[in-house]
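[[Sequence with tokens]]
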Amino acid sequence: MSESGETPVAGWRRWLLIAVVALGVAGLAFAIGRFSTFGANSSVVTPSTDSADAGFARDMQIHHAQAIDMAMEIYRKTDDQELRILAYDIATSQAEQKGQMYDWLVKWGLSQSGGPLMSWMTTADGGHAHGGTTTGETPTDEELRVAMGMASADELAALQAASGREADCLFLSLMIRHHQAAIPMAEALLELGSDPRAHAVAEAMKNGQTAEIDAMESMQSRLQCSG
């Protein structure tokens, strides 16, 4: 039994319930994304290269790629069963979403790369959707990656070098931050985007990652992670 009074079995079952709910939401989004093209009419406008939909698809592929790498790193070496299940869910669900976003850009006839990170989040009045800020200065790529909650090269190296509880806690800290930055990006797409498939995936992402943050914070408490 953990310090919080929760047995490992109870914690595992609680996470499985969260995972089932999150995967159900993601599955619905996948179905909408797959089948919304059938019966599509000519009034649907293909997103342009500078659209929020295209920018989201590009940036979130980058974001997901790092999450997949971190999840697989901890999946390979953690001894914590609950964390292992979580890492597998993150890796598989985000790999699926990453593939969908790649496919959108192909179908839209757009490049997989575009303008500066997060530039698509700019609203019509020159502000930024959902928590973004403007300073009048052009941020560096590294500053933009920090704003996206991305782990630095040093943090990734530390995760690779760590083991045991240290690795588990470091992963949870990095992935919570990663998820927390993804949610405003999904919300911005819901506000600024126009493609129904992208909207469905962004909504699923927002709900699924919110549930995963709750699960990871619970794991931090159970593992007595500091910081």
About this structure: Residues 164-192 form the longest helix (29 residues).
